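Each record in this resource describes a single protein on a pair of labelled lines. An example record follows, reproduced without changes.
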Amino acid sequence: MKKLTKKLVMLTFFGLSACAVNAQTWNIGTPTATDVTATLSGGTLTINGTGTGKMQNFTWQNTPWYRVHGSITSLVINAGVTTIGDLAFLDCSNITGTLNIPYSVTAIGSSAFANCSGFTGALNIPNSVTSLGGSAFYGCSGFTGTLTIPSLVTSIDGTTFYLCSGLTGTLTIPNLVTSIGSQAFIGCKSFSSMLIPASVTSIATNAFYGCAGLTSITCLNPDPTTITMGSNVFVGVNTGTCVLKVPTGSYSAYHTAPQWSDFTNIQETATGIENVYLQNLKIYPNPVKDELRIESGELIIEKVEICDLTGKTIYQFDNLKNKINVSALAQGIYIVKLKTDKGTVTEKFIKE
């Protein structure tokens, strides 16, 4: 009996008693501690905020709930929380379900959700967020669907989405982003396409290492030499089959630029459609023998022209549906111009 009593006392001292695990509250705000509270009850960790304070930043394995983090199975972050602190939910891998971040949050700290591999569903970060810390979603392999990065984010730090292997669809880098950090998207193998805006001037080492699912990359900077490139940026991307789409007139610059020149299929396209709609547009096969097919997604195609390399129009189509018979064309290189409701797209294709 004495040994059992002593054991219970020690467990209570370290905050591990059954009662403590089921109902504990901590003040974790700054500069006023009570501005943000965390309550752990029945496996659910609930974060509440007054809207006037920020969550504290934590050091490695030093959150007040870290000793019992394995017992946390759900997370609720309520409106009124304005920031999510560094390392806040580190290693909480048993939290399942979706991650809902309220619109009151403006910043997500470094490693805030690192190794939270149990989350499922789409990762939707609200547009209120202007700052994403490095490794914020490191190892969150359970997320699926299309990633939404807030439009006011200006940089994507190193390892932010490290091994988020379940994210699919189009990776769209916002127009204000100037730098993409080392290993930012390493191992994100399920993205199918990517849009890099003209604002990006720095892509660090291994940024897209292992993004094996990419079949299309659009880079809107007309001069790749103005982008500082780390080493091995695209290692693991199949540069033999992945199409690199670049602004009209910049083919030669990309064809000779280190790392960009690894892509064997570089296509010029108009820069006027700087949004996700462009990623849904597919013109294939290339080379083509008989029929050139067009998948436009949400774009409405108003007119299509086939031109030779001098710009002379050979064919013109209105109200096109999804394919063009090009069997009568002689072998060579041609230009297809698509006038859409979002702008004009120009691409080259090879007629076999």
User: Anything to note?
Assistant: The chain has three helices and 26 strands. Confidence is low (pLDDT under 50) at residues 1-21.
